[in-house]
Amino acid sequence: MPQHDNGYGSGRLPSSPVMIFRVGSRQYGLPAGLVVRECMPVPELMPVAVALPHVSGWFRLGMAMVVVIDLGVLLGERTQAVRQPVDLLYCPLLLCNLPGGGSVALLVDAVCEVMRRPQPTSVASVTVDGDMAGGEGAGRELELGDGGIAFMLRMTDIINDDERMRLDTLMERTRARATLWAAIDDSQPDMPRDAHGDSHS
To answer: What sign has the CA pseudo-torsion 127, 130, 135, 136?
Structure first.
């Protein structure tokens, strides 16, 4: 790999990496690292307690319950979240940190690249820092290496305080329902068996 200026000698701060992804026909960007933690395939999703148009479901990540939000619904590309396993098979997830703590997974149509640096002609007008709000470049267009344009987003625009409260309430109801069903399953007695070992209903 050719060596290039790291930005320190030019009086300019080095740029943070940016995750470029596609939703519909447009490309978007979110800061990689502090905001986008990982790109991952969609695991098996469980339904939430109350179906919402933009929520595909949830999955467990360690001890945490992570809700999956279809970014295509929020950006007006479709009216209902993708939920069928056969359709989710080809959709990547962006596992993201939320401002104030917690995680959310954003369902996108395709992941394009991680830009280590914006194009030199764009550095002055588009600066992406690594803060949890999503960067100073949010709301601006980022010039890509192939001549395309990506529209910078930030997590506080995707999930504002009101939406965060609704999601927290939804996941609390979902957690309570999962606990209830687990308790019912645990309390069911084993079915009696006959002499041949067959169970009776």
So the answer is: negative
Residue type for 176, please?
A: A
Residue-level pLDDT, tens digit, the chain, 201 residues: 444 444 434 444 446 899 999 999 999 999 998 899 999 999 999 999 888 999 999 999 998 899 999 999 999 999 999 999 999 998 999 999 998 888 999 999 999 999 875 444 443 344 333 344 445 455 688 888 888 899 999 898 899 888 988 888 988 888 887 777 777 766 666 655 555 555 554
- The beta strands (E) that lie in the chain are given as 18-23, 26-31, 36-41, 55-61, 64-70, 92-97, 103-107, 110-115, 141-143, 149-152
Counting beta carbons within 10 angstroms of the beta carbon of residue 186, is it exposed (0 to 12), middle (13 to 18) or buried (19 or more)? exposed
Whole-angstrom CA distances from 26 to 29, 103, 185, 191 are 10, 25, 46, 56
Structure token digits, residue 62: 């360690």
* Region at 169 (left for phi over 0; alpha for psi -120 to 50; beta for the rest): alpha
With the CA atoms of 78, 81, 85 and 88 taken in that order, what torsion angle do they form, in degrees rounded to the nearest 10?
Answer: 60
